[in-house]
Amino acid sequence: MNNTITYQRKLIEVETRLGFLYIPAKARELLPKHSDEVTIIIKNTNNSQTKKYNTDYNRIFGMTSFYNELNVTAGDILTVEISEKLIIIDIIEVEVIEDSEESEKENFIDTSGLSSQSKGNIGEDRVKEIILLYSQGLLNVYKPVIDDRGIDLIVLKEKIYNPIYIQVKTRFNVHKRNRMILTINGSTFKEHHSYYIVGLSFNPHKMEMDEQILFLPSKDAVKLASRLSNGDYRITISMANGKTTGKYKKYFISKEEFINRLIERIDQVNEIIK
């Protein structure tokens, strides 16, 4: 294990407003495994303070005085150097690609009160329900035993053994931010004619998923997504009232059309294999 981890991070508004620093997954290995105190130092100064690192939220609290001294605002970029219980920060003026998974969260506030795993399970269950109910038994859905390969659901048509593979992405913050941001793990993602990304958006006013579903072929995802520095793919879709007018518009379909597309793809592949 390296003794030091250095990375760059763009601050968002809620961090500067509430005075905390989010620690992304790649930088946590040298910090305490349980909530504890850490020492924060501003580079090239004698300003050193002890702060509380909370492992439940992966945040260091009490950063207001440091932010004031650095005169930072939302959008400024920090260089963060982490060693065991010691963090050195400095402000830079070089633009970087923000690839922290926390940037996808709704102002760092989980309005549903659910964990990411719980929300993911809800999305997968909702897709299973839609497939089973709307296909009236013509399609069956299976879940892989191993769930870390980028495939959440496998869909088969009755008596036809040419499956469709689905990765489900569920977002609970689209209506507030007017954006659907999906991050796909580059190490497990492989484009294939039978592999699709399905995106669901939670509507807080109706306490239900939006009617329109993103049904994106993996081959198109590769062409349209941005590639992050860590190899992941980032899909950013501008939304308004659950709809988009951008380049992803044609990939948003109704629940009925979602079922029709699945059946159509399975039949097409079956004809080719015959």
Any overview of this molecule?
- This protein folds into two domains: 92 residues, DNA-binding pseudobarrel domain (At1g16640 B3 domain, Beta Barrel), CATH 2.40.330; 158 residues, Trna Endonuclease, Chain: A, domain 1 (3-Layer(aba) Sandwich), CATH 3.40.1350.10.
- It is 23% helix and 34% strand.
- Strands 1-6-7-3-4-5-2 form a seven-stranded mixed sheet.
- The radius of gyration is 22 Å and the shape is elongated.
- It starts with a strand and ends with a helix.
- About 7% of the residues have low confidence.
Notable traits:
274 residues; alpha+beta; seven-stranded mixed β-sheet; 6 helices; 17 strands; elongated
Distance between the termini: 52 Å
Number of strands: 17
What string gives the helices and strands in order?
Answer: EHEEEEHEEHEEEHEEEEHEEEH
Number of helix segments? Answer: 6
User: Main sheet?
Assistant: 7 strands, mixed
Report the CATH architecture of the largest domain: 3-Layer(aba) Sandwich
Backbone structural class: alpha+beta
Which term fits the overall shape?
Answer: elongated
* Name of the CATH first level of the largest domain: Alpha Beta
- The quaternary state of the protein chains shown equals single chain
Question: What's the domain count?
Answer: 2
Q: Report the uncertain regions.
A: 93-112
